[in-house]
Amino acid sequence: MGLTREEEYVHRRRSRVALELYPYLPRLGQLPLSVIQSTRDSYLPASDARTLFGPDTALRKLHAIGARNHSFGGARDVLYATLRDSLAWVERLNPAAS
């Protein structure tokens, strides 16, 4: 998955509240998580995502893809390969997820 800083919103009655996702990651506990982020994402570049995500661990991996933009321009083949590898990694760590 790729995360932005506040792109996701929660709708409450008549208002929209921006939901910051990175602070919620520790609540996922022992679930494996692989984040794929473009290095030149105009919403949240991979370097900023790394700061918010923290270091990789046995259960958390951030993959920075050298791409031109949020849509992984110029690097879609790398994106798809990383996505396949990430899904296989999650399934190896959590066979119940497959």
Please tell me about this protein's structure.
It is built from 2 helices and 4 strands. The protein is an alpha+beta fold and 98 residues long. α1 links the parallel β3 (33-38) and β4. The mean pLDDT is 84. A two-stranded antiparallel sheet has the order 1-2. The chain has a two-stranded parallel ribbon with strand order 3-4. The two termini are 16 Å apart. Helices cover 27% and strands 20% of the residues.
| Helical residues, percent | 25-40%
Distance between the termini: 16 Å
Count of β-strands? 4
**Percent strand:** 15-25%
Mean pLDDT: 84
Count of helical regions: 2
User: How would you spell out the order of helices and strands?
Assistant: EEEHEH
Helix-strand makeup class: alpha+beta
Unreliable parts: none
In spatial order, strands of the major sheet run: 1-2
Computed Rg: 14 Å
* Global morphology: globular
Q: What does the largest sheet look like?
A: 2 strands, antiparallel
